[in-house]
Amino acid sequence: MTTERVGVGVAGVGLMGRRHAENAAWHIPGARLVAVFDADRTVASRVGQELGAPACASLDELLENDGVRVVVVASPSRFHADQAVAALTRGKDVLLEKPMAHSLADCDRVIHAAERGSARLQIGFMRRYDAAYAEAKRLIVSGALGEPLFFRATHRDREATHLPAARGVVDMMFESAIHDFDLSRFFLADEIATVATSAAVLGHTPDAHERAPNAALNAVRFVRGALADIETYWGALYGYDVRSEIVCATGTAMVGQQQGTRLEVYTPGGAIHDLFPGFLERFGDAYREELADFVGGTLERRPPPVTGLDGRAAVAAALAGIASYASGRAEGVAR
Ligand SMILES: NC(=O)c1ccc[n+]([C@@H]2O[C@H](COP(=O)([O-])OP(=O)(O)OC[C@H]3O[C@@H](n4cnc5c(N)ncnc54)[C@H](O)[C@@H]3O)[C@@H](O)[C@H]2O)c1
Questions:
Q1: pLDDT band at 1 (very low <50, low <70, confident <90, very high)
Q2: At 185, is the pLDDT very low, low, confident or very high (cuts 50, 70, 90)?
Q3: What's the rounded mean pLDDT across residues 163-180?
């Protein structure tokens, strides 16, 4: 058994990046946090100080550190492609948060940089590491439920985020729906052919015409004929509600345990239990498993299970959803 601990650097230590940094510093025996970088120097210093790692003044400084073997890129997505290319070009292994990039050309740049640098590249679709999703996949691959035919997903964020109308469904597709585009490919083991996205501004706002949609329904067709139905909604207010159903020829797998804790309280008025407030609570274990597996793979030089091509396929589906919202028709997914 090796006792080597893989040096991790994190670029972007906001909500998501800080969690990756905490996992590297405290929760993954095979990892150690070596450096952090954030465009906001106050954030970088605070996180660095709290987690016991130096805060770099630039991404270059982080990449020059020979102790950094794995770079987690968790900056805002418009920086993903350039930062991943910079790290991969220096031979660092990169765990790149979703979305991989905003264009297929940028996805290709990242994939080629990984190939040229002989570096490992994995995209942050951590739901695949969630125990329930992983077990559903195992069952389906075992053939116990027959052929997977239909994927139905609900993704509801608690926060009622409303962006300016000009953003259209860009952020909904890249930030939220992209997880379910990935899961639908994962479970149906096929490529997405077309996406038809209808979207609206629902609830919580008196000035709907000035706002981008906070709700989208995505009807997805796969190349071999399977279907997916993906709901994306920002503003559930009651909690973070992510559920999926994989309908197969002889059975159905449902993922969607919604209790934050195991406490359930019975009263004369009925039974109550709590819900998850957000992604950090619902997928806490999955984020830890994801990074633990990635650093383990860095030592063993294993191919990553969520590849650049997976990231690219999900971006292609998101782009089709954006185009479909604009055109009002189902749009083909670019290869
Ligand atoms: N896998 C998941 O479930 C999941 C969940 C949340 C967010 N994310 C992804 O993580 C990324 C960050 O999201 P977040 O919610 O943490 O956002 P955030 O706004 O909380 O944090 C982003 C951080 O990046 C910093 N930053 C801005 N420009 C930068 C740059 N050029 N280089 C380095 N740092 C920079 C900001 O100062 C901020 O601290 C996004 O791509 C998002 O989609 C993934």
A1: low
A2: very high
A3: 96
Fold (topology level) of 130-281+314-332 = Dihydrodipicolinate Reductase; domain 2 (3.30.360)
Best of 13, 94, 97, 130 for a ligand 1 pocket test (most atoms within 8 Å of beta carbon): 97
The pTM score is 0.97
For range 246-263, the mean pLDDT: 91
Residue 274 CA to ligand 1 center (angstroms) comes to 27
Query: Ligand 1 centre from 133 Cα, in Å?
Result: 24
Average pLDDT over the chain, rounded to an integer? 96
Q: Please tell me if the CB atom of residue 278 comes closer than 6 angstroms to any atom of ligand 1.
A: no
Per-domain residue ranges of the chain = 6-119, 130-281+314-332
Average pLDDT over residues 213-221: 97
Testing ligand 1's pocket by substitution, the residue of 10, 15, 45, 282 carrying the most ligand atoms inside 8 A of its CB is 15
Buried b (16+ CB within 10 A) or exposed e, 181-207: bbbbbbbbeeebbbbbbebebeeeeee
Which CATH number among 3.40.50.720, 3.40.50.300, 1.10.15.40, 3.30.559.30 corresponds to the domain 6-119?
3.40.50.720
Cα 221 to chain center, whole Å?
Answer: 21
Give the contacts of 100 (CB within 8 A, at least 6 positions apart): 80, 81, 84, 106, 107, 110, 123, 308, 311, 312, 314, 315
Q: Which atom of ligand 1 is nearest to the CA of 125?
A: 1
